[in-house]
Amino acid sequence: MTEYIASPKNERIKAAKKLTTKKGQKQGDAYLLDGWHLVEEALASGLTPKTIYATEKFLDERALRPFYDQLIEISPEVAKHLSDTETPQGIFAVMPRELASLPALTGQFLLLDGIQDPGNVGTLVRTADAAGVGTVVFGAGTADPFNPKVLRAMQGSQFHVRIVMADLAPLIAQLQAAGIAVYGTELNVNAQNYRELAPQEQFALVVGNEGNGMQEALLTETTKNLYIPIKGRAESLNVAIAAAVILFHLTA
Amino acid sequence: MTEYIASPKNERIKAAKKLTTKKGQKQGDAYLLDGWHLVEEALASGLTPKTIYATEKFLDERALRPFYDQLIEISPEVAKHLSDTETPQGIFAVMPRELASLPALTGQFLLLDGIQDPGNVGTLVRTADAAGVGTVVFGAGTADPFNPKVLRAMQGSQFHVRIVMADLAPLIAQLQAAGIAVYGTELNVNAQNYRELAPQEQFALVVGNEGNGMQEALLTETTKNLYIPIKGRAESLNVAIAAAVILFHLTA
Hints:
By secondary structure, chain A is α/β, with parallel strands linked by helices. Chain A has 9 helices and 12 strands. In chain A, the strands form 2 sheets. In chain A, strands 8-7-6-11-9-12-10 form a 7-stranded parallel β-sheet. In chain A, strands 1-4-3-5-2 form a 5-stranded mixed β-sheet. At the A-B interface, α5 and α9 of A face α5 and α9 of B. Chains A, B: Residues 32-101 form the RNA 2-O ribose methyltransferase substrate binding domain.
């Protein structure tokens, strides 16, 4: 029979709640997934959660059957305590906090240079996934991949693409040495119009901070820098929008 | 000499604060812009605010000179009270709450069918602006164009594109009668790959609700429905991302 926890003051629940903060995640070497879709994606990817906390209505889910040893039933009150959404679905998984290491330098890469907004970061990963880009690299100053808001916006795409944290400057040099063109992005009409590039099997695209764009020091290291011609009077595009427009062009 | 208001309890400030809510906006027939960039865009567009509330540091701004009659100085405390951001810039403008009426049916249109998230709605307007699309139509169920989060995400693009509220079903018929193709969007591989369309001078693109997509009743009324091929394992794209990918393709 599955264990049942009714109170948010239970020690295990206190420990699970800590896994929604950066400090707690480091200490516990784990993070908390919130919601059925994300838990399902994690299980479908062949990962084994350390623990699954679920309210009664999830107990009969077929996908959970192989994980009865990890399953603990919780009350709706506990679910509300664990979630940072207003209407939690009532299922959580404690996942090992692991990032991929850099893969062989082949294929398509999206490099994030200081993207601060968690929603943007998550949407960028989800968009890379949809475009078929295999690896997303989180550079310095980018929101943490285990930030709950990043996790929510990724919608499970972290289980489909490789997520890596790395210094971008040496990586750009390595990619180029491996024969992969690295495209920066800038708000500069003297940069190259992205539409002039043909779709390509291998490339790395770098996008920069919401307010300041890419670091100057990186802009000079890229193979080429691209811009998106703006026809109206908007001054710029949201960074995830800009990345999407270029990625879907290059992967067509 | 400019009037000075130090207290959030001042009656004019209480009235201004109400202009950040839907009910208050309807009663006052006005809304509140928050932040220098938005105020500057409004003034640059030739609009005259009813009132400008500004902290001391803005009083010498050149762009405000023609508006001294509308200018009231406020304390940082009042600025904090009026803003729904944590670190307000300290300048606000009370603007007449006006929407455009439907323009002559020519050019490019983006139609929003029940887009609920204010950030998505604002980003869609900003993206339409950048793509050179002239008119964005807010259909039923779409977040209000004067919602403070929508205003923030639009980043002033509401002063560059025409924003209209209208019933989408009759509008789609009118657009088609005027010879404009109306493209729906759906997550359906039997719909047409957007990449098969050539860029075009005139079109209307309809995007739908984040969870449910476009209304069935509208999908059957469009000229064609488009889809974006997904290469990875993401189940869908964010609605603003999807709109951007198609708009930048069609307006190339």
